Amino acid sequence: MQNKCTLLIFILILSGCSKNKKDESNDLLHSQMKIPKGKWDIHELKSGTKNEFNVTTETINHDGILFYKVEGYADSDVAGFLIQESKKSPVNAAISWLMRKQGEFDTESNLVIRAEDEGLYLGTDTNAIEETALLRKLN
Amino acid sequence: MVTIMLSKIILLLALFATSSLVQAQESEWLKLEPVSLTSLYNGQITKFEHDGRLTLVYFFASWCDTCYSHTQILKYLEQKYAKLGLRVVLIYLHEPYAEAKRHLEKMGFGREAFLGNDEIITNFRNPIAPAIFLIDRKGYLTGRFTEAAQLNDLSQLITLSMSI
């Protein structure tokens, strides 16, 4: 219940912040980088680690930043992606990760994501090469 | 009640702090750009570019004392995966042509070997020998290995990248 209230506050505040703001480039990102709701598989390619998570909220637009709420990832009670369109390429977006687990926050910034036929590639650090993960939608 | 309120405030602050960070920085995937390099097999300037294969680019030098483990694993990986389409490219760093060529002949492996120049060093963000980069079939850099302890991960990453 507490988590739901927290999410509701998120949504209300973020909706308010983005009200009346229309950006064509965000629409482009939205069409090309949309992360559909439902179950996803995340496979870290260096370590071989696999996890599943569930995207429950497609987007909350806060001044060009899209927030995707994720459930079921590593016992976290709140988690999500923050994605912003890249100025250089519509398939190459800056991304951050936010997670709260047992009261502790874990945030990771400066990630990148790109869409390919086989799924979404997620890379860490500015060079996108410390770790590479492949996100695939599960049916 | 106070704990719940505090929790909400902290969560919101964390979100907005992260949002600011996203806005402040511009990250991108690095893609292998074509670069002209001197081939160590014929001395000719040759264009090194992505050809659709999974590619390992190895930056090293004959004077590099800590390159031994990386060179050995590269030899092993080339033998194991070349038939499956793995491309291995050797780039000598900060080395005169004659010394690099002599070292290459003595080493006895590597189908493509070049003398590094400023352009490729800049493209790969100033690598220090030894460094191995994995470039996926789409031409993006997806792995960087500089420590000998990371080399088990390299084999894992190649295996998984080939299965995708």
Mass-distribution shape of chain B: globular
What distance separates the N and C termini of chain A? 28 Å
The pair of chains with the biggest contact is: A-B, 49 and 35 residues
Q: Percent of residues of chain B in helical segments?
A: 40-55%
Question: Mind describing the biggest β-sheet of chain B?
Answer: 7 strands, mixed
What percent of the residues of chain A sit in helical stretches (DSSP H or I)? 10-25%
Strand order of the largest sheet of chain A: 1-2-3-4-5-6-7-8
The strand line-up of the biggest sheet of chain B is 2-1-5-4-3-6-7
Average pLDDT rating of chain B: 85
* Low-pLDDT residue spans of chain B: none
Secondary-structure element order of chain B, N to C: HEEEHEHEHEEH
Strand content of chain A: over 45%
Number of strands of chain A: 8
Largest sheet of chain A: 8 strands, antiparallel, barrel
N-C termini distance of chain B: 49 Å
Radius of gyration of chain B: 20 Å
Shape of chain A: globular
Architecture overview:
The complex is a heterodimer of chains A (139) and B (164). Chain A has 139 residues and is an alpha+beta fold. Chain A is built from 2 helices and 8 strands. Chain A has an 8-stranded antiparallel barrel with strand order 1-2-3-4-5-6-7-8. The radius of gyration of chain A is 15 Å and the shape is globular. Chain A starts with a helix and ends with a strand. The model of chain A is unreliable at 7-31 (pLDDT under 50). By secondary structure, chain B is α/β, with parallel strands linked by helices. Chain B is 41% helix and 21% strand. Chain B has helices at residues 2-24, 68-81, 97-107, 118-123, 151-163, and strands at residues 35-39, 45-48, 55-60, 87-92, 112-115, 131-135, 141-145. A 7-stranded mixed sheet of chain B has the order 2-1-5-4-3-6-7. In chain B, β1 (35-39) and β2 form a beta hairpin. The N and C termini of chain B lie far apart (49 Å). The model of chain B has no long low-confidence stretch (mean pLDDT 85). The A-B interface holds A 2, 5-6, 9-10, 13, 43, 45-48, 62-65, 67, 78, 82-84, 86-89, 92, 94-96, 98, 100, 103, 105, 107, 109-112, 114, 116, 118, 121, 123, 126-130, 132, 134 and B 4, 7-8, 10-12, 14-15, 17-19, 21-23, 25-30, 125, 133-134, 138, 140-144, 153, 156-157, 160-161, 164.
